[in-house]
Hints:
- The structure holds two protein chains of two kinds.
- Chain A has two domains: 4-81, Methyltransferase, Methionine Synthase (B12-binding Domains), Chain A, domain 1, CATH 1.10.1240.10; 92-212, Cobalamin-binding domain (Rossmann fold, 3-Layer(aba) Sandwich), CATH 3.40.50.
- Helix content of chain A is 59%, strand content 13%.
- Chain A contains ten helices and five strands, in the order H-H-H-H-E-H-E-H-E-H-E-H-H-E-H.
- Chain A has a five-stranded parallel beta sheet, sandwiched between helices.
- In chain A, strand 3 (141-146), helix 7 and strand 4 (170-175) form a beta-alpha-beta unit.
- Chain A is globular, with a radius of gyration of 18 Å.
- Chain A starts with a helix and ends with a helix.
- The model of chain A has no long low-confidence stretch (mean pLDDT 88).
- In chain B, helix 9 packs parallel to helix 11, helix 13 (271-278) runs parallel beside helix 14 (298-312) and helix 14 crosses helix 15 (333-346).
- The radius of gyration of chain B is 20 Å and the shape is globular.
- The interface between A and B is medium-sized, with 29 and 38 residues.
Amino acid sequence: MIDFKHYAEELKQAILSTDRIRAELMLTELGDVSTQDFVEKIVVPTMDDLGNGWEDGSVAISQVYMGAKICESLIVQTNDPDAKFRQPQLHFAITVLEDFHLLGKSIIYSVLRGLGYQVDDFGRTTTEQLVDKVEQESIDILLISTLMLRSALKIKELRRKLEQRGLDIKIVVGGAPFRFDTQLWQEVGADATAVGTSELVPVIEKLTGEAKQ
Amino acid sequence: MNNIMNSLQRTLTALSHKEPDKVPLFLLLSISGAKFTPSFKSDKGCSIKDYFSDAEQVAQAQMAMLERYQHDCLYSFYYASAELEAFGGETLYFDDGPPNAGAPIIRSVKDIADLSVPVPQEIPVLQRILKTQQLLKQQAGDNVPIIGVAISPFSMPVMQMGFEGYLDLMYKDQDSFNKLMKINEAFCVTWANAQFEAGATAICYFDPVSSTSMIPREKYLQSGQTIAKRVLAQINGPIATHMASGRCLPIVDDIAETGTAILGVSTLEDIRDLKQKSAGKITLLGNLNAVEMRRWTAEQVETEVKKAIAGAARGGGFLLAENHGEIPWQVPDKVLMAISEAVQRWGQYPLDWIDDDAG
């Protein structure tokens, strides 16, 4: 019987000390654990813990970033990494609106991939480019990261342009402006916001449920 | 009742952890100056790019904002990526927000070997900043502190190579990290000292990567703090270390050890806790919420100003400001006026109302 709680704690400690080797040894010790068990019982609670730590100030963004990268690489090393992808899938995309601060997007991208969501990475985009891409790629759920207040406010314009083309998608926003102004996501017409990874998972689960209906 | 002081006296008294006549108000207004140009007020308008193309225009706008908001500093900061331009980088301009850094100039670690230390006097935008400081000094003399900005060598790589690439460098390639720091440190010292020569009274040392929001304390002690100690020792004037909205409560003592006089703190942390840790050691600058304030009512302004003053102003060692290091473009004039009026009303020492409010 595998003590998953013990291994989740071990993984968290390895991440907090940026010790990739310790994390890989843990995976070796686990033997032929299924990808599903590894993701759901070890990776998810670990990333939740780190996300909560980020929210309360006890964990730094560098540790969340390293955690996401380490988890992503461990999942690839499990028995059947492709089995983690959820079926059937809605079409997700993630982007940074109008600046070059890509770290937040990279973390969320890694976490969602780790949790079995297939996500298109649109990189850095403008509102005009984004409307075209959403239409061309038939996106259902769009995740937008912003650092600057003006970029966050641009989401209102994006929503209007999407509506003009009849594109009724779900938009989830994140980044500093939404962290400092908790009413801003509603003002710009987003469907949800999430401060850290631990908030993001329930938000995604709720929206995927709504989007399927 | 204390005698009325000028802005510099007020600030210096607060920095010596004594109570001045009233709480110093530092509205860190940069891009907002474009709204104070004659062409913005006429039908022609004034784009933010145009605004920063003219050192004299920036100086005039700073003086006009000083007059209007009756606050206590002149802020000669243009935008952070001005320093990226010194390294050959690009700045992206917008009509309704701060100019932003363009694509990173370090695309692979090998590019670090090609970097050299820029000379501020040879970079057009830095020349204009120095010119602005000279003009402000001519106009304000020794009555109002003139605040310059130098990005910390430790935080500069976020613009130079992107945050993701920088974290990988920081954690995986110590040699290349050290090489980059050597170049950035030399530039930072030269740039800060050039600003003092031009007329700056103090330098705001923006160091958000040192914040505990970004890296854990252990990493800060090995990197950001060591670098700050080396750099600050070579800068010929007072420093305000600014976390640009990042948290720093667990490292207040560590930051004080770098030799900085002031610490710019986040609205995400309780100002009372910060004051408790900093009292007598380092002056706090903060911590009004810069993002939220654009939609504050007059009542909210009063509540927030009172909260900050009540939490940190007793005994001096406190400058009231927002928490990011720049007032956003979207913050309306009426909010800034309300902040100024609230400080006038509630910021007069000895702040007896705090006991009354506490009941």
